[in-house]
User: What shape does this take?
Amino acid sequence: MSEFVAEFIGTMILVLLGDGVVANVCLKGTKGNAGGWIVITIGWGLAVFVAVAITGEFSGAHINPAVTIGLAAAGKFAVGKVALFLIAQFLGGAAGAFLVWLFYKDHYDLTTDEGTILGTFATGPAIRNPVRNVLCEVIGTFVLLLAVLYASCPTFTSGTEEVKVGLGCLGAIPVALVVMAIGLSLGGTTGYAINPARDLGPRLVHQLVPIQNKGASDWAYGWVPIVGPILGGLLAAFVYGLWPSI
Assistant: This one.
């Protein structure tokens, strides 16, 4: 499996299972309807676990542009590969969201609340305050990248063998627990995108697919889950650059 394919498949699975649990909890008439925030955060954590377990060996399982950009800024990932990884991640996120829509199509047709429908594709603020919303995404992503950089201490090579740097460096179970911790503790304000590919591609799919009563895709907010996570990743890289071996 090439790194591009691995990042595409990993991000697709991440969004399929992550947005899938939101759809299961929120859409009308599903078996998991009204399952609550705990179910959603566990589901997203397990989505990360599955994505990392499948693709970590091949690409390091970045599955997140903020991870790729943050690792490159910290000198732990080749800058020349960044664009390739980002394209794969954004396409994978869109593909995963499309599969969620296809899977839950009947329940989308039953659901009438526009905010609920959009929430199964993309994130949104509990209270709309752009500055604070960005800050929340920065902090959440900062925690994620610190876990990658400090808990795994990744390097480019181990002897003559290349080491794939990414979320997979933590191991599938530890990184799933990190994401669950972020969701439980820091997810209440913005829905903890902490990943531009988890939001941008799915928001575009929401714009394009036919859903009754779906409403607008809220592009006025769409920049927050892109800018916030990238800034958070860069901030983590900066801190790691100051104290690489705390």
The radius of gyration is 17 Å. The chain has one domain: 3-242. The longest strand covers residues 157-158.
